[in-house]
Amino acid sequence: MSSSSLPESLYIFYFDISSDLAHFRDIFNHSFFRTLLAPPRTTVLGIIGAMLGYNEEDTITKLTNIYIGIKILSLNGYAKDIMTAINQKPEGGRTPVMRTLLVNPSYRIFIGAKDEKQIEYIREGALAPKYPLYLGISDCLAYIKNISSISNVNAISANNFNCVIPMATNIGYDYYIKDNNKMIFAPEIVKTVYSFVPTPKGKKPDRYIDLLMFHNCEVKLEKNIRAYPDDVGEPICLI
Hints:
There is one protein chain. By secondary structure, this protein is mainly beta. It has helices spanning 41-52, 56-62, 116-127, and strands at 9-18, 21-22, 67-74, 78-86, 94-103, 106-113, 143-145, 151-154, 156-161, 165-166, 173-177, 185-199, 202-215, 217-229, 235-236. The strands form four sheets. Strands 1, 3, 6, 7 and 8 form a five-stranded antiparallel β-sheet that branches. Strands 9, 11, 14 and 15 form a four-stranded antiparallel β-sheet that branches. A three-stranded antiparallel β-sheet has the order 2-5-4, with no helix packed on it. A hairpin with a 2-residue loop joins strand 12 (185-199) and strand 13. Helix 1 crosses helix 2.
């Protein structure tokens, strides 16, 4: 999605979500179960679906017009564990695989839509979720706090960001470290699923998007893109 295709204004609210551990699998890495630094768009839509009591198909079909933004508030490093996965070789069975986990992650999730009533409905779900919430996998039970009010926010043009950024193929960037005394997660562009489609055999990836993820850094893009200011004026990318 091009940032220029984003609406001139959106109804937006945010909440903070945290857990002891998180795992957002990089589905394009097959040597081990590597985690992304932050939840991709489809994972956030899954969290919204759980809040509202949606099944998988409803989550896919009823939230297509939702925009999401992600800011990493804190990360305390990585942990590793061993799990078993289905062996893709002809002999079948299961095989041990290393998995990386994020330690004490916390995120600020921004939810936007052009329909104010839809945003009000989602915010009600955040206040009283229908199902348990997880950060990636069911082992990582999550809790939310700091649920904001809803604001009608006009888009701005910006190039300095502290949030997950959708990346076009022709845009460069630079970054600086914010605090050398804290753990640094340098910017990395990762390919993620933007949306799924339901099929008789389950969900199937429909579209993809490259995201720039980082923490304890500030990124400056070579050119401005459309964003939305939060309640203190900091630009947030919506996807």
